[in-house]
Amino acid sequence: MADKKTIRSQEEKDLIINARKPEGELGDQLLDRMNKSHESLAQWGVSHLDIAKDDVILDIGCGGGVNVERFLKMTDNKVYGLDYSEVAVEKSTKLNQAAIDEGRCEIIQGSVSELPFEDNTFDIITGFETVYFWPDFINDSKEVRRVLKDDGIMFICNEAIPNEGDERQKELIDLLEMEIYSEDEFDEYLREAGFSDIICFSKDGQDSLDKELVTGWLCVIARK
Ligand SMILES: C[S@@+](CC[C@H](N)C(=O)[O-])C[C@H]1O[C@@H](n2cnc3c(N)ncnc32)[C@H](O)[C@@H]1O
Question: Mean pLDDT over residues 91-104, rounded?
Fold first, then answer.
């Protein structure tokens, strides 16, 4: 059992450490869990997006692939998922196999820092619960901007906002070596990466399945 200081049990830590890069059996389990636990956050976030039937969409850090599946229903054009985790690519592929067979979907293993796409390819690029782990947010956002079409949209959706003094959040940050950004930081960094028309939406996390963990919902829309 966890003592008061560690807050989470070792078993729980062994599982959630996979949020950074899901691996093996525990990674597989966590992807299943995230597909469900992030659903209401994703629905809320996506409600801020204006998606046209001919939009070409890329979801970075696609995890278990539910957002790829969602976007396939919202556009008639192609949807791509990208993740650097092998097990995430396997799961997203399995979930979206029918669309892949029809030539409407591609799931690719790769890193946000070096996107395997031509300049000006996508209308919308999304990242759900993933930017915390990107190695260099400003440069990685520049890479996202490179593969966006002119006027294209970068969309970020997070269920964590900085909460100083929150011991559980601090434990999570240390465990996952993650970076939790505020609205002001997103605004500053995305501007530095060359984006404009940056809009943030936020909400308390009361609709989240994991209320104890979630400090609030935040989504960001930025235009190339
Ligand atoms: C917390 S999970 C979120 C998965 C999914 N988007 C969701 O909302 O359920 C973070 C995902 O981002 C991926 N990821 C983290 N850093 C990445 C990077 N630098 N390049 C590509 N994928 C990355 C991880 O492998 C993982 O699948």
Answer: 98
